[in-house]
Amino acid sequence: MARLFVQLLCVVSLALGLRAASSVPAQEIRIAYFGSWPLGTDSTYRTLAQALLRPPQQQGPNLRLDHYLVKLDEAGSVEAQVGLARARGTRVLVAPTTGLALAVSHWQGQTPLVFASHPDPVQWNLVSSGLTQALPITGVTQADVLHGKRLELLCEAFPGLRRIAVLGEKRWLPVEGQEILHLARQGFGLQAELLTPGTVEELDALMRSPQARRFDAWYFPPTYLAYVAEKQIIAHLKRLNKPSIHITVAEVQAGAAMAYAQDGAFVIPAMAELVHRILNGEDAASIPVERPRRIVLAVRADAQFGGQRINPAVVRKADLVF
């Protein structure tokens, strides 16, 4: 009887011990996110948090994504915030833009950094190559190298084009703008002209001018102005009754003729995946920079431009037809 009591006592003690151990929270692992917007309005932070943090019922490390507000135009802001994050024992730093990543990388030390960059991070000296780095840094880039393919699709969709306008930016005129002009002229025999308005007001005046009617079609590469003036651009193109090719599906949904678009939906999940890989022991310096995994051709088949519809052969191979 005494032996049975002792065995029962051992079982109860073991059960209580397991219960107590399970109630102890897992060690918290800190990840630092550096943003230019306050926490309450930073949608990228919220999306990354959803992709990164496992639900409580799933086993795994107890992750904490700390938000650090930095001001790139304020001296000492980045240094102070990165220093604070590292002092708290942060395991991984996250920067969602090229500018933030460049600033954070100056103060990261040996703490791994995961970034997102729209331009080529090699050209911006964020990383030394797309494969391995000297510092523990890796990330995701949406660097756009599709100018030639877009021009090819535009010519195929609207045979007979001769003169096209390219909306550019003055800051990349010496390099990327000239590259597009060379592709248009030498690759497709087009008369191409690079237009570089500096503001939305200047763009509006340009597209209202008689000069705008001289072009058979328009190409809108990835520029800040094309992004902020999307609605105005689409309205002008409808008024001018001119075809165009763009870089996002949203522009075709809004009424543009066509787009050859990198699928940006992979960026946040890819960043979360990179963070987990680093936490699981991989060396950030040895993880290649992630690039777009899918490219989408979107067209608006019902639109007419000067009585001409998009070539049916292009419509047939489109991924999205509106």
TrEMBL record:
<dbReference type="Pfam" id="PF04392">
    <property type="entry name" value="ABC_sub_bind"/>
</dbReference>
<feature type="signal peptide">
    <location>
        <begin position="1"/>
        <end position="26"/>
    </location>
</feature>
<keyword id="KW-0732">Signal</keyword>
<protein>
    <submittedName>
        <fullName>ABC-type uncharacterized transport system substrate-binding protein</fullName>
    </submittedName>
</protein>
<dbReference type="InterPro" id="IPR007487">
    <property type="entry name" value="ABC_transpt-TYRBP-like"/>
</dbReference>
